[in-house]
Write a structure and sequence with these properties.
About 30% of the residues lie in helices and about 15% in strands. By secondary structure, the chain is α/β, with parallel strands linked by helices. The strands form 8 sheets. A 7-stranded mixed beta sheet has the order 22-23-24-25-27-30-31. Strand 30, helix 24 and strand 31 form a beta-alpha-beta unit. The longest helix is centred in the last third of the chain and has 33 residues. It is globular. It starts with a helix and ends with a helix.
């Protein structure tokens, strides 16, 4: 039994869910049990009663049996149309992906990888290899590569997958099968990471296990070697910062792979020994790093034999074809790194402030709960994480720290953000830069000065004027970007790129409490990467512009003003002042594990928040249950403020509104009073997967590969492919894309987040969303917001950050997706922003999302079944509309269904849900809505059962009369 439970847990099955489903059916089961018990009692009474005539006993026995049959039918209907109705709707959904759509998706998957795999180094032009070349591929990861991640970002196991070696073979590269057989014999499968019981073992044969014959044969096969190193992370699985504390099996009994305190993103001893072995036998070595998390690759500099380095995160179902094409020169690489590679991750400014930090004085606002995947209940106190680095995330820190003399850049950064090589060379030149009506326009000419055709990315940065001790500003800030077509040798292409001058404004959280564009010279440059300037112009702001309530930015519906002052808790954050004078103090590990009384007093969860305490006595009870004759379809295309919405909402009953809000897991429910159709939502972001019917698309490359293309057109085509396949599956909502940032290299879900840079993430995400929505599929951008680590994320993780960082770094990808991508749906996150749960943070969901950004659509929680603190009452009163749960539990249903305050909030939530749904594909006149097959089947079964009961009843009476006559 324990083995079964553990297996279910690793499959992502929450054991509490299983118990909850059974518990929901208990009343119906009790009803049936009572009828059966009564029938048994009657039958026993008949057996001991000698006075009753035989015909009477026959009739009583027959009626008892018919009563049990009728009770069974009633119970079945009560279960099916009651607690299991939404689940049955999901598991009996129809729709399949056409072969044409799958073929197009496979081709697109490869194309994305072709532009997103990054050539980090290519000394002596070692690559490409000639087609038909022989290649020795070393490293166990060559036979067990990483294709994606775990959890929501996993790829389908039911579809054909191109392996790393397959990709090389398909490009005409011959590999040493003796080596691959050696690795497969050592370990057949990658150890499972799963949702729990993470196994971080990195299988790798020891150097001593390579026989001299194996090495000699390899040298005879080819003088060129490839080394493959991989790392994997996943949902609920941040990468370990100390390998001695996790589940790991050493590859040798004679030594430890990792010393105490050594982290996962460094080489293990067995890997180091393998690299040494390869480099001592081969002068031409290619390193392929197969992972989404940037690793310490300094060992490359210690081995001059390693001439080429390729960054190849999870490529999805067919993307390893692209790796082979790049190695063989069939495709010219054009990817640019979406993150910064540094030599020492432990020296990164975030490193001391990631991981598990538990408050020592906050048990009073904790709660009792079982483990996520079962176990005895235990106290769950609040946890915390401090975003001490402020706005200085990724390259923004390293470029600014170098400019201020804090670091030696060349000794700190190995491969900058935006870095990527090609098999050809390019020049880039700013032909002109103009400004009109607040828009800056650059014409940039890119010329291929090499010998083969290729694509290049144009990266535009700004370096703003900075006053020591003033508003924090990084010295390098990506502001826009573009990707060329394939340019032939000697040819050129001119790209026209635009951005708003207000995009260079900084949020002044110290003084003005809004965005400010300070006077002075702004250096606008086109860069090879975040560090290397190719050409630049100067734009002068004559006088400071303050974007306050009287002068909001042009893209804001309301001025962006201070809203998150509760979220910094007097946090000391990194400052550029006096050349980062406070660096040591700011980035130190936490020394105070106590929560302030003020924060504790307003930290709410399901266990300490009472709706009645927050009701507004001035609220008036809305109309419910009216018969106005309006249908939801009548409001397709109607303005959000159309007065008919109130007329429609008046028709809904309180029970209907409660059900629509509570049962939002992978669906939105049908509601008869307004003729609302049911819709199906599915997981992402690397695919569109229906976890209930088993129908799923191919797995696309990891989001970081999509970002590394620097190609918004390709991102839009990806979204369109998802939208098309979702439509064929009769799916209307897509739980993607994931917009969180790469604050840390150790975040387990970096594979499904785009980048360390908010602008790159924002525009790539916005394009994906727009693509999906072109097919009427609403994309839930997630996880809103500051959900940048997995550890403790579902245990009241209080995320403390200053407002400037919140807005400029962590909200900006969502902001761009809402404003540019036209996003219609949002998934909130499990973590708390400061001391407010993100799924009930009014400042976030109403103040910023709906107020400042003008978002019109619905907000759903993250998985409701993974936490014990989420509460639907507090959620809907603060801007969240839908609970991600598909059956009844205590907290997803509203406890206050009688107060005017609650009913008003319910109406607003239902309006947001229905506004999104009515403008989706499901209400497209070309779409056909069908009744779920189980409902039709139940009607047929009920009719047959009724006929059977009538026939049996008639036969019983006939038999009774006959027996009585005898």
């Amino acid at each position: 039994m324990n083995t079964l439970l553990l297996t279910l847990a690793n499959m992502g099955v929450n054991l509490d869910d299983v118990a909850d489903v059974v518990n929901n059916c208990i009343p119906q089961l009790i009803f049936f049990g009572v009828v059966v018990a009564a029938a048994i009692i009657v039958l026993i009474a008949m057996a001991v009663n000698k006075k009753l005539a035989k015909p009477t006993k026959f009739m009583v026995r027959a009626q008892s049996g018919l009563a049990v049959l009728l009770a069974f039918g009633i119970m079945l209907n009560l279960v099916a149309f009651g607690p299991m109705s939404t689940m049955l709707d999901l598991v009996t959904g129809n729709g399949t992906i056409t072969e044409e759509s799958s073929d197009e998706a496979n081709a697109l998957c490869t194309e994305i990888a072709e532009e997103g795999i990054v050539l980090l180094q290519n000394d002596d032009n070692e690559l490409p290899l000639a087609s038909g070349s022989n290649l020795n591929v070393f490293g166990w990861a060559s036979v067990g590569p990483v294709y994606g991640g775990t959890g929501a970002g996993a790829i389908s196991a039911d579809r054909p997958t191109v392996s790393l070696l397959d990709g090389l073979h398909n490009a005409g590269i011959n590999t040493n099968t003796e080596l691959s057989d050696f690795y497969t014999a050592y370990c057949a499968e990658r150890p499972a990471l799963g949702y729990s019981n993470h196994n971080w073992t990195l299988p790798e044969p020891t150097a001593a296990s390579y026989t001299q014959e194996l090495i000699d044969n390899a040298k005879s096969f080819s003088d060129t070697a490839m080394v493959v190193i991989s790392r994997v992370g996943g949902e609920f699985a941040d990468l370990p910062t100390d390998m001695s504390t996790v589940n790991y099996t050493d590859n040798s009994t004679e030594y430890k792979d990792f010393e105490d305190g050594q982290h996962y993103l460094s080489l293990s001893k067995t890997e180091r020994d393998m690299v040494d072995l390869v480099c001592s036998n081969f002068d031409n070595v290619v390193l392929v790093y197969n992972a989404a998390n940037t690793m310490e690759l300094g060992f490359v500099n210690d081995h001059p034999q390693i001439k080429s380095v390729i960054w190849c995160p999870g490529t999805g179902q067919t993307g390893f074809n692209a790796l082979g094409e790049i190695v063989a020169g069939e495709v010219n690489p054009s990817g640019h790194s979406a993150d910064t590679f540094v030599y020492d991750l432990t020296a990164a400014p975030y490193f001391n402030n990631i991981g598990s930090f538990t408050y020592t004085n906050a048990d009073s606002v904790g709660y009792e709960s079982a483990s996520l995947f079962g176990g005895d209940p235990a106290l769950v106190p609040p946890h915390f994480v401090n975003y001490v680095e402020g706005i200085y995330v990724g390259y923004k820190f390293y470029e600014t720290a170098a400019a201020e003399g804090l670091i030696d850049y060349d000794k700190t950064v190995q491969y900058p953000f935006g870095h990527g090589l090609s098999y050809t060379t390019f020049t880039q030149k700013i032909d002109s830069m103009t400004e009109a009506d607040g828009t800056i326009t650059l014409d940039v000419t890119v010329t291929n000065t090499g010998s083969v055709a290729g694509k290049d990315a144009v990266q535009v940065y700004f370096n703003p004027p900075y006053t020591d001790g003033g508003i924090e500003k990084a010295s390098a800030n990506l502001v826009t970007f573009g990707k060329t077509d394939s340019i032939e040798p000697g040819a050129s292409q001119t790209l026209t790129l635009t951005f708003n001058t207000e995009d260079m404004a900084s949020f002044d959280s110290k003084d003005k409490g809004c965005y400010v564009l300070e006077e002075g010279d702004y250096i606008i440059s086109i860069n090879e990467d975040s560090h290397t300037v190719l050409d630049s112009k100067t734009y002068n702001v004559a006088s400071t512009i303050v974007y306050d309530e009287s002068n909001p930015r042009s893209t804001d519906a309301e001025a962006a003003t201070t809203k998150f002052d509760f979220a910094d808790d007097k946090l000391v954050t990194l400052s550029r002042a006096d050349h980062f004078a406070n660096y040591a103090e700011a980035v130190a590990a936490p020394s105070d594990y106590t929560m302030s009384e003020e924060s504790m007093n307003t930290l709410y969860n399901d266990h300490n928040w009472t709706p009645e305490d927050h009701n507004d006595p001035n609220d008036e009870m809305p109309v419910t249950g009216a018969n106005n004759g309006l249908k939801l379809a009548d409001l397709r295309g109607a303005d959000y403020d159309d007065e008919r919405w109130d007329t429609l909402l008046d028709q809904m009953t309180v029970t209907e509104m409660d059900d629509l809000i509570a049962l939002g897991g992978y669906q939105t429910k049908a509601e008869a009073s307004v003729d609302k159709y049911a819709t199906i939502d599915c997981d992402g972001p690397a695919a569109i997967n229906n976890n209930f019917t088993g129908v799923s698309s191919i797995g696309f490359p990891s989001e970081i590969i999509i970002a590394s293309t620097f190609n918004t057109d390709l991102a839009r085509r990806y979204g369109e492919s998802i939208g098309r396949m979702a439509s064929e599956m009769n799916v209307t909502g897509w739980y993607a894309p994931a917009m969180n940032g790469h604050r840390s290299a150790f975040d387990g879900r970096n594979f499904e987040y785009y980048s360390e840079d908010s602008v790159l993430a924002g525009y790539i995400g916005a394009s994906s969303i727009a693509g999906a929505q072109s097919y009427g599929v609403y994309a839930y951008m997630k996880h809103f917001a500051l959900n940048d680590q997995q550890i403790n994320q579902s245990e009241m993780l209080c995320t403390w950050a200053d407002e400037q960082a919140i807005r400029e770094i962590y909200l900006r990808p969502f902001e761009i997706s809402a404003k540019v991508g036209g996003c219609k749906a949002v998934m909130s996150s499990w973590n708390y922003i400061g001391n407010q749960w993100a799924g009930a943070c009014n400042a976030l969901l109403n103040g910023v999302l709906r107020g400042e950004w003008g978002f019109r659509g619905m907000v759903i929680t993250d998985g409701f079944h993974f936490t014990d603190y989420m509460d639907s009452d507090i959620a809907i009163r603060n801007g969240c509309d839908l609970m991600l749960k598909n059956y009844d539990v205590a907290t997803n249903h509203l406890t206050d269904t009688t107060s005017a305050t609650s009913v008003k909030a319910m109406r607003q939530a239902c309006k947001n849900i229905m506004y999104t749904v009515v403008n989706s594909r499901v209400y497209d006149p070309a779409n056909t809505v069908s009744t779920p097959i189980w409902r039709t089947a139940m009607i047929v079964v009920d009719v047959l059962l009724a006929v059977l009961l009538v026939v049996l009843e008639v036969l019983t009476f006939k038999s009774y009369k006959k027996k009585k006559a005898q």
